[in-house]
Recover the amino acids of this structure.
């Protein structure tokens, strides 16, 4: 086992809104034979400020995150394509003109993986003993798919869940986009509607993904429309939780 | 600005016809692009090549521009530099005045939209007529194009029918072919009467001083060919260092834009009419437009200048798909528009567009130049937030800045962050909720709950729960290895007979190919003229003496048909109306053909082959089987470069002229011929120079 221990970066959304997803992530990792540590000083990677154009504020949070996760040498696992992309690409952009912090950001970037990427590519764990007899839709989230090029890995993990039938949704944005959802509510809502229509016609009981941000947008929309379909993080499926982010 | 943008967004979302048109555009264009890219042996490698060419050029823009100016001047162009939009327009007005021009025929060009050329010319008393079908329609409607490639993507054929009824006085119809024919009839005299033709440029090759124009309808060829004076507006970033760079660019531009392997016409314009040319303008001007580009090149948005204006990012963008082009209120809409508009027109007026993106990255995925548009949008948001802090008319919502400050302060301390989570958990208990999800948020956050519920903050955050969790490893699985399913390799081009490939590709785009033995050529040509029903035949094959039996071609035509036989140089006068054109055939010799795209090459010269291949209703090209090359780069390497240096204009022709501007319904035969018939014979090469080794 090349990585007996990892540091979990839970992400602020999981921390504050979806602790159950965090528990499922721990279950998935420990079942894959990895010991998990949770650096208690972690907060937020800074992406909300970065995406909104407030880079000084983003740097402040990024420096804190770098400090927290460079204190130990263990690799970092993030259950979010979006936050993993922030650390892998966004930090390099933020510190492009700051050689000292850029070096530290590179060290963190190199040891950071998104959860499915870590399980499949870094430690080769696909079969995690999960089963679920259901038909679900897989939502390929944008930053995971295009930002990190991760698609095969979550699908391999889904394929290993016994009894599961998976429908892959079109790789089309759900309309979340961070501050975009508040800044451009009409656009964000129109894009969400398109996604909800696709889910409805897929005839599924749940939508699975690797980013709770998108899933929060989608489940929020499903609930508003009174739909019974629920979202769940891939880790929740592996850990045998019921559909629903919480 | 943002409030107006939001109003336009809402009205676009509430317009069902627009929504349908935009969905249609996105679906069709994206599918066509993928299909076309699959015909390349390795599209990803070509994309890397294009990205490299574009970036290298931008790294040495000044040097390349100096070479371009020098070579254009050597080729006989009048070269002008325009620092600003005003300069560019003034130069054009002055040129028109100098030639006493009162009417200008114009082909599609985004840079002329950018600088506001049409209003500037009109203010100077010069009439401007847009001749691209889509641009003509938006000009009649008095509005800007809604898409870089498909100007009337927002209109239905019924809209066009009503417009033509009121503006052209034709009976109402929604038949696309009839509408196209009406525009063709109206515009034909414009090309022939205009004293000045205005075009843009897709590329300008520095090494050889060659202007490259990529078109479909034939109007681009007409405005650069028929009027006595041609003015080309060239954005300075259009420069391409060498001829050898063109093939990959031309492989990706049409595929990304319209899903074509190559457009009907690619003009390689070298020079004004030479002493022994039968056609072409007497004078060509190139106006090199900066208008903010140098400033962009010096900023961290430089990469945006690598754009080749294919419009693929518009077709892929989920935001464009919802709102269309006009909502952006910029000549350049969509993701690339949101990046370059603030640089060209100002951060204050266009900076807010960077916020109209979910940063999904679909734009970068399809970009043939691999421009990192999401990162550029983020940099613009940074600049815009900075700008808004100082600007009096701050567009940036004050509360977002305040929230981010407080958030950064909170999140840079674990203690503050933990306390904040507890406070938020208490706070959300006060909100209306259903099953643990808030149904209404206060203040600006209300925007969220308009369309979604919001999960309440949890009383016990994960950071507290995790303390009770068992974090030790409990492996259940066996290491199954990160096996990677191997992707099927792209299909290599089959090593089939070059001529068979040429025929297959040309027929696929509506061209006709006949293979005839050299001795059968006279009969085949006479058959073709009879089949077309032509009453006029323009003979413009050059180097005819090289073709054995040249005399018998003409004899056979006289013997078997009643058509008037005229020299190619007469084409223009004898095809001035659509009726005359419809009854005409132009006969040219193709100097070469490209098998991979089904393309023939026609050069300017004393026989008038440019006019003869463009103005009649049908074009018959005689091609020697020896002159078929695998691809454009093969032709350039094996003599194409030197031929280009000797000729004012070399045109790549891939099928009959076409348009799909109205509802993306294909109509064959617009301003150029509706039929292209290639007679491939085993005779001697039609290349007027030394035979190739």
């Amino acid at each position: 086992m090349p990585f007996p221990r990892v540091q979990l970066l839970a992400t602020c959304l999981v921390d504050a809104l979806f602790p159950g997803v965090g528990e499922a992530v721990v279950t998935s990792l420990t079942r894959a034979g990895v010991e998990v540590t949770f650096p208690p000083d972690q907060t937020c990677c800074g992406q909300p400020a970065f995406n909104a154009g407030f880079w000084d504020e983003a740097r402040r949070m990024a420096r804190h995150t770098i400090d927290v996760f460079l204190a130990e040498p263990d690799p970092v696992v993030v259950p979010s394509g979006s936050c993993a992309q922030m650390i892998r690409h966004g930090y390099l952009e933020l510190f492009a003109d700051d050689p000292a912090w850029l070096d530290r950001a590179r060290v963190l970037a190199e040891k950071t993986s998104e959860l499915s990427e870590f399980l499949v590519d870094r430690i080769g764990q696909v079969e995690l003993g999960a089963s679920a007899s259901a038909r679900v839709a897989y939502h390929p989230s944008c930053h995971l798919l295009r930002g990190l090029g991760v698609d095969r890995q979550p699908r391999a993990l889904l394929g290993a869940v016994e009894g599961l039938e998976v429908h892959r949704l079109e790789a089309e944005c759900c309309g979340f986009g961070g501050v975009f959802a508040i800044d451009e509510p009409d656009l964000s809502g129109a894009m969400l509607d398109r996604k909800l229509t696709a889910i409805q016609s897929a005839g599924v009981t749940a939508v699975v993904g690797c980013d709770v941000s998108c899933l929060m947008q989608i489940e929020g929309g499903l609930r508003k429309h009174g739909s019974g379909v629920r979202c769940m993080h891939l880790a929740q499926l592996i850990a045998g939780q019921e559909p629903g982010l919480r | 600005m943002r409030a107006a943008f939001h109003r336009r967004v809402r009205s676009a979302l509430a317009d069902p016809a627009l929504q349908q048109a935009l969905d249609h555009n996105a679906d069709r264009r994206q599918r066509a692009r993928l299909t076309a890219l699959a015909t390349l042996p390795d599209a990803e490698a070509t994309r890397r090549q294009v990205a490299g060419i574009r970036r290298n050029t931008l790294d040495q823009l000044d040097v390349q521009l100096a070479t371009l100016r020098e070579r254009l001047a050597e080729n006989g162009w009048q070269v002008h530099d325009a620092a600003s939009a005003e300069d560019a327009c003034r130069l054009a007005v002055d040129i028109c005045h100098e030639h006493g021009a009162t009417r200008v025929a114009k082909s599609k060009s985004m840079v002329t939209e950018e600088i506001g050329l049409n209003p500037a010319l009109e203010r100077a008393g010069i009439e401007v007529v847009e001749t691209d079908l889509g641009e003509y329609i938006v000009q009649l409607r008095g509005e800007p194009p809604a898409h870089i490639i498909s100007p009337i993507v927002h209109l239905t054929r019924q809209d066009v029918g009503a417009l033509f009824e009121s503006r052209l006085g034709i009976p109402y119809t929604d038949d696309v072919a009839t509408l196209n024919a009406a525009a063709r009839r109206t515009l034909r005299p414009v090309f022939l009467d205009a004293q000045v033709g205005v075009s843009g440029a897709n590329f300008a090759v520095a090494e050889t001083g060659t202007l490259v124009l990529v078109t479909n309808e034939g109007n681009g060829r007409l405005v650069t060919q028929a009027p006595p004076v041609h003015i080309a507006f060239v954005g300075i970033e259009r420069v391409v260092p060498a001829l050898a760079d063109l093939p990959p660019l031309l492989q990706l531009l049409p595929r990304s834009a319209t899903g074509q392997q190559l457009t009907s016409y690619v003009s390689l314009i070298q020079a004004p009419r030479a002493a022994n040319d039968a056609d072409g303008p007497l004078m060509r001007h190139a106006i090199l437009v900066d208008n903010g580009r140098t400033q962009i090149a010096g900023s961290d948005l430089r990469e945006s200048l690598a754009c080749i204006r294919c419009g693929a990012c518009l077709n892929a963008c989920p935001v464009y798909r919802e709102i269309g082009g006009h909502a952006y209120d910029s000549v350049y809409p969509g993701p690339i528009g949101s990046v370059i508009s603030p640089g060209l027109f100002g951060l204050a007026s266009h900076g807010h567009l960077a916020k109209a993106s979910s940063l999904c990255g679909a734009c970068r995925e399809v970009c043939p130049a691999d421009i990192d548009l999401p990162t550029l949008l983020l940099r613009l948001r940074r600049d815009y937030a900075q700008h808004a802090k100082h600007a009096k008319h701050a567009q940036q919502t004050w509360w977002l800045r305040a929230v981010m400050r407080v958030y950064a302060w909170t999140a840079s301390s674990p203690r503050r962050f933990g306390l904040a989570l507890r406070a938020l958990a208490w706070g959300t208990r006060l909100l209306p909720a259903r099953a643990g999800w808030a149904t209404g948020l206060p203040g600006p956050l209300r925007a969220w709950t308009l369309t979604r519920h919001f999960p309440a903050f949890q009383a016990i955050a994960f950071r507290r729960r995790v303390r009770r969790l068992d974090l030790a490893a409990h492996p259940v699985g066996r290491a199954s290895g990160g096996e990677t399913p191997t992707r099927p390799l792209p299909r290599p081009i089959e090593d089939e007979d070059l001529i068979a490939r040429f025929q297959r590709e040309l027929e696929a785009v509506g061209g006709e190919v006949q293979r005839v033995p050299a001795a059968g050529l006279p009969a085949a040509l006479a058959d073709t003229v009879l089949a077309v029903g032509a009453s006029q035949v323009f003979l413009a094959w050059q180097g005819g003496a090289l073709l054995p039996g040249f005399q018998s071609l003409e004899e056979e035509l006289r013997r078997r048909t009643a058509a008037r036989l005229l020299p190619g140089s007469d084409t223009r006068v004898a095809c001035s109306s659509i009726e005359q054109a419809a009854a005409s055939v132009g006969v040219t010799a193709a100097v070469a053909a490209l098998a991979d795209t089904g393309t023939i090459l026609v050069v300017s010269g004393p026989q008038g082959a440019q006019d003869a291949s463009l103005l009649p209703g049908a074009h018959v090209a005689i091609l020697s089987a020896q002159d078929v090359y695998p691809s454009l780069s093969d032709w350039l390497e094996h003599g194409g470069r030197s031929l280009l240096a000797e000729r004012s204009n070399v045109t790549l022709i891939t099928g009959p002229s076409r348009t799909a501007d109205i509802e993306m319904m294909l109509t064959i035969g617009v301003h150029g011929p509706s039929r292209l018939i290639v007679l491939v014979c085993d005779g001697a090469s039609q290349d007027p120079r030394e035979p190739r080794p």
Observations:
- The radius of gyration of chain B is 29 Å.
- Chain B touches chain A through 87 residues (CB under 8 Å).
